[in-house]
Design goal:
Blueprint: H1 3-18, E1 33-35, H2 42-45, E2 59-62, H3 66-78, E3 83-86, E4 102-105, E5 112-115, E6 120-124, H4 129-140, H5 154-159, H6 167-170, E7 177-185, E8 191-197, H7 202-210, E9 221-227, E10 247-256, H8 262-278, E11 289-294, E12 302-310, H9 316-328, E13 336-344, H10 345-349, H11 352-355, E14 363-371, H12 377-387, E15 397-403, E16 425-433, H13 439-453, H14 491-496, H15 500-510
Parallel strand pairs: 2-4, 3-4
Antiparallel strand pairs: 1-2, 5-6, 6-9, 7-8, 7-9, 10-12, 10-13, 11-12, 11-15, 14-16, 15-16
Length: 526
Amino acid sequence: MTTAAAGAASGAATTAAAAAPAAGRRTPAAGPYDVTSADQQYADLVRGNNQRWVGSPDYVRLVTSPAQTVAAVQSALDAGKRVAVRSGGHCYEPWVSDGIEAVIDLSQMNGVSFDGARRLFVVEAGATLVEIYEALYKRWGVTLPGGTCPSVGAGGHVAGGGYGALSRRYGLIVDHLYGVEVVVVDSAGKARLVTATRDSQGAEHDLWWAHTGGGGGNFGVVTRYLFRSPSATGSQPHELLPKPPTTQLVSSVSWSWDDLTEQSFGRIMKNYGSWCEDNSAGSSPYAGLFSQLKPAPKAAGSFSLTTEIDASLPGAGRLLDDFLAAVNKGTEISFSVDQRRTIPWLHGVEWPGFTGGGDPTNRFKGKSAYMRKTFTDAHVAAFYRHLTRPDYAYPGALVLISSYGGAINSVAPTATAVPARDSVMKLMYVNFWSDPAQDSFHLAWMREFYRDVYAGTGGVPVPGPVNDGCFVNYADGDLSDPQWNTSGVPWHDLYYGENFPRLQRAKAAWDPTNVFHHAQSIPLPA
């Protein structure tokens, strides 16, 4: 029996039992588990990592199998409840809180396994990135080129086209996605489990393709991702996905704001961007290097440049030194070396102090941009002005400017749903705070900062010679707001570019009644 058939067969048996959540009801550990406002866990389960967004659903249903997920979707529909899904809880905007009456929580579906008959790895949607990396590496010596925040869940990360420290070398995580198992709802309101792969034809192929960067909450509920690299020809696990470096040479250097002028700050920014331009080819000797320049407000005292490079590359130390010299060239100031050492690869992945992750008790606002070229004078001036504003003497903000390109850009912009396939940098703007009373203060700074950086293109990074749109996984509701996006380019074109019409066709085929929707979900065709 196929996975989809097995899910459908067992789903019927669980539908009745799961049909009506009851406060305080307890089910076996292997079965679905409903949490309501009468339960102690409710306060934790109605929120994700951004504490600005706290929902008030009638219940949160924790599921442990695809069949239970089918039943959970069906029971919510039968009861007329608006449904949303959560895996890792890292959505930047209130897509899993506002107006949601039933949350399907996939966090207990976190298995990682190998299917020898199909020659592929199976990753359940609730698995976090660190769980995925540990399982793949410890059991089979392979990995996926996903993100560096350990607690992010596979569910949304993969569907949005996640990237990370190995992406310059091996591409995006979706470039290794063979298939997706997803609960969809037909025009009659019937939930069912479908498995679509890159070898599928017609509408099923479109369903697979839509999950290679179309974003979460659009087409259905992903229960499992199936991974095998497209170039893989063997049958053994170690032949089917990339191998990570054995060791990484990691480095962190920083510049003190006390030493910086607007000119030296601008030189660092432009040098970094130019280096990314010059070394964005997959054939570059720097394909195994990933870096993040992290400009922070002057109140932070300094800002850093973190780097990791495959320590086995010939002359890895020299490559790192040359990179750092290129970024600092012409500044006439020195950086401080805060850290430089060689560590085992998995140790670095598990170490949030270097890779990041954030405090899950914070509130935050995030924004994004792709760039095809280095920073312009206008970009640099806006960065400097807002990072040194005397009315924002706050250290809890930064822009993470990641080196990009390499193997990512060897894939055509329509081969997956990710259109940004010739960018050289990827930017994440973010600030963190804890006091709700400070929301307007921090939001205003972030919005004004971003608007002024892209003032020449209507306050957003409209695709063109220098900018290349936004990243759907860093969801930004302001892109839909004409106060902050005056470009005339709609939010969906900033995320999806020329791929948007095909995503709409997939939406019409697989979610024809728009069950899965939020403020920036793929709309049905007019």
